[in-house]
Amino acid sequence: MTPRRPRKPGMPGKQSPLAPVETITAEKNLPSEPPAGPQEDRVTASREAPIALLERDHDAATVIAFPEPPGRRRRKWWLAGIIGTVALVAGLIAYLVFSPALAVRTLDVQGNQLVPEDQITAALAPLLGTSLTRIGDDDVRVLLDGFPPVKDVSVAAAPPSTLSVTVIERTPVAVLESDGKFILIDAEGRQLTTVADRESAALPLIDGGTNAVNSEVFSSIADVLAALPADIRKRLVHASAGSIDSVELKLTDGKTIFWGSAEENAEKSRVIGALLTIPEQDPPVKVYDVSTPSRPVTR
């Protein structure tokens, strides 16, 4: 097979059976250059812009203010309300704390039996003239700390000018005799106050004077006396113990209560309370033995 010779340029040949090809020319239209000379300024407004220039010439501009967004106005009013409320509360507090309208002029003392009222009011005199809002329980406790019978206090304001003080006193359980004086003591052996004579204190006498509180049996006696109801304690004239297991109480009618040790005090108190309500017998009872509260004995 003879190879086909290449066709020289310009040599005629057979026309291609394909359709003639069109040549397409694309031309990019570039923006024309802005005309020379002054241009009008464009004005844009956004949500953040408070004002916009609407019209401007070569010498002056006209400016108008857009309305403030509602959300911003609400925040301003809300902030102003908070500031006003805080200022009002601060002013009210300052008035209550420093105003002479609430200054203490009267003291109302309650609950005291062992400490005379005039002594308490004299001790609380430094509080007169002080605003009721500035006085608390601790302020009164400090002033009454020198009174042994005072265990605690409770303070209440009674506007416009009265301070009510409720005194909580320690409970005396026995009497000690020393140098002709009769001293009331509590269950801890604390000396509370002094009475003029023995009849003034309806409590049992413990032998041994003021040194009795240092004896090994004192805590047993004191625990027993503290466990007794007040109405029974008032019927006692004497309390003693030969040992910690042999506490003995003497009643005003001469009868004896043999208590034994300072154990099961609550149960023994209940039993002796019931025994003392039994009508007189013949022969009369001289001793109530509650040392074993489940099996009390009378003889």
Q: Which structural traits does this protein have?
A:
299 residues, alpha+beta, Ubiquitin-like (UB roll), Rossmann fold, 6-stranded mixed sheet, 3-stranded mixed sheet, 6 helices
Q: How would you describe the overall organization of this protein?
A:
The chain is α+β, with helices and mostly antiparallel strands and 299 residues long. Among the domains are: 100-169, Roll (Ubiquitin-like (UB roll)), CATH 3.10.20.310; 172-298, Cell division protein FtsQ/DivIB (Rossmann fold). It has helices at residues 70-98, 117-123, 137-143, 218-227, 230-233, 265-275; strands spanning 51-56, 61-65, 106-110, 150-158, 162-169, 174-178, 181-185, 191-195, 205-206, 236-241, 247-251, 256-260, 287-289, 297-298. The strands form four sheets. The chain has a six-stranded mixed beta sheet, with helices on one face. Strands 3-5-4 form a three-stranded mixed beta sheet, with helices on one face. The longest helix has 29 residues, at 70-98. It is elongated and about 125 Å long. Mean pLDDT is 82; it is low at 8-28 and 37-58. It comes from Arthrobacter subterraneus. This is Cell division protein FtsQ. One of its GO terms (biological process) is cell division.
Brief rundown of the structure:
The protein is α+β, with helices and mostly antiparallel strands.
CATH domain fold name of the domain at 172-298 = Rossmann fold
The CATH architecture designation of the domain at 172-298 is 3-Layer(aba) Sandwich
Helix share bin:
10-25%
How far from one another are the termini? 160 Å
Mean pLDDT comes to 82
CATH superfamily of the domain at 172-298: Cell division protein FtsQ/DivIB
The CATH class designation of the domain at 172-298 is: Alpha Beta
Oligomerization: single chain
The arrangement of helices and strands along the chain is EEHEHHEEEEEEHHEEEHEE
Structural class: alpha+beta
Low-pLDDT runs? 8-28, 37-58
With strands numbered from the N-terminus, the spatial order across the biggest sheet is 9-10-11-12-13-14
Overall shape: elongated
What is the radius of gyration? 52 Å
